[in-house]
Amino acid sequence: MEFWKLFVVALMPIVKVLLITLLGIFLALDRFHILSNEISRKNLNTIVFFVFSPALVCGSLAETITSKSLLMLWFMPLNVLLTFIIGVVLGLLLVKMIRVPRHLHGLVLGCCAAGNLGNLPLIIVPAVCKQKGNPFGDADICHKNALGYASLSMAIGSIYIWTIVYNIVRVYSSQISNEVKVDDSMITPNSTLEIDQENISKDRSHTNYVKQLEIECTTSNERVKVPKNEKIKKLLKVLVEKINLKALFAPATIGAIVGLIIGIVPIFRKLLIVNNAPLAVIQDSIVMVGDAGIPAMTLLVGANLIKGLKGLGKQFPIIVGIIVVRFIALPGIGIGIVKGAIHFGLIHPDPLYQFLLLLQFALPPAVSMSTITQLFGVSEGECSVIMLATYSCAAFSLTLWSTFFMWLVL
């Protein structure tokens, strides 16, 4: 296809996203009192998080993913993991180059590592299929496959965000809190001994947990070790304490697991999915609820971005650095990775699937970064500013990269 026609096909979904995002910003203005306060945004976000997202992911995966197609899509988890690893490496280089303040290290690394693998692919890729003259074939089949691919991308991204990025921000936020405690102890010398003892006990509980896996006692100059079963149990207990399982198994992740089970297990598929299935009404209801998730997600993105209008110029070097990482460096590296995988036959020859793999490298930071910073109470204002700037820039970069990616895979 001509490059200009591809540009128009790529532009229309971005325009739709922008229009709905602007409506979200409009509704978040104080004069309208619809999404202007935290309570209303929180309530809508709760509905999206617990109802719309899992329904959308579950319904899409159940319809499109089978045991055969799942084997064909094995490269996607690896591809998403590479976006996180490369993003962290580039983020570390950015932190060193522009000397990012220490309290922003976790935020910068998280924004460089985690792309919006849920909302935007779910909006953009199916919308491309609906465009007249889309390059991916029949509109209905393309739309169905696009929802399945994007839903799987959302589920994988959610797992990586809450295992990798969550712990990155947690580590840096704990370092900041420890520094604050040390500063406070210097101001109040009378309580120095108590604070030092408290810090020593905390350090021991965190850094010596591996040593607790092996209990040593000396009896008649003999060293007695704990059985391997006890070591494994204690190690699992430590991992459960260190990893936020509640966040890891978010509703969208649970919805993805349920959707995969329905799609893969033949009995469930016959009951819910195939033509004239006896329980098809349940699947139809799930899909209907999930369809409300895409506009609700986009409205929330706009409503949350309005918080970043203040202080936009204060973080200019950091914003430029994150934009370069996410919209220039990562997509360029992604092209090399995906084209290399295609050359060695690691990816099945579906242009729509290849397009989504490339798109995963060119997305703005994940919306979940706002949730994570709020959770730890660090860099919330700076996160809003970065989100506003990067998503404004994404309107242009995503159009150009989407056009180029479509031209590349066809």
TrEMBL record:
The keyword Transport is annotated on this UniProt entry: yes
Membrane topology type: Multi-pass membrane protein
Predominant localisation class: endoplasmic reticulum
Gene Ontology biological process terms from the UniProt entry: auxin-activated signaling pathway; endoplasmic reticulum to cytosol auxin transport
Top-level lineage group: Eukaryota
InterPro entries: Mem_transp_PIN-like, PILS1/3/4/5/7
Keyword Isomerase on entry: no
Keywords: Auxin signaling pathway, Endoplasmic reticulum, Membrane, Transmembrane, Transmembrane helix, Transport
Location(s) in or outside the cell: Endoplasmic reticulum membrane
Gene Ontology cellular component annotations, sorted alphabetically: endoplasmic reticulum membrane
Parts of the chain that traverse the membrane: 6-32, 74-95, 107-128, 148-169, 243-265, 285-306, 318-346, 352-376, 388-409
Entry function: Involved in cellular auxin homeostasis by regulating auxin metabolism. Regulates intracellular auxin accumulation at the endoplasmic reticulum and thus auxin availability for nuclear auxin signaling.
Entry's family note: Belongs to the auxin efflux carrier (TC 2.A.69.2) family.
Protein name stated in the entry: Protein PIN-LIKES 3
Organism: Vicia faba
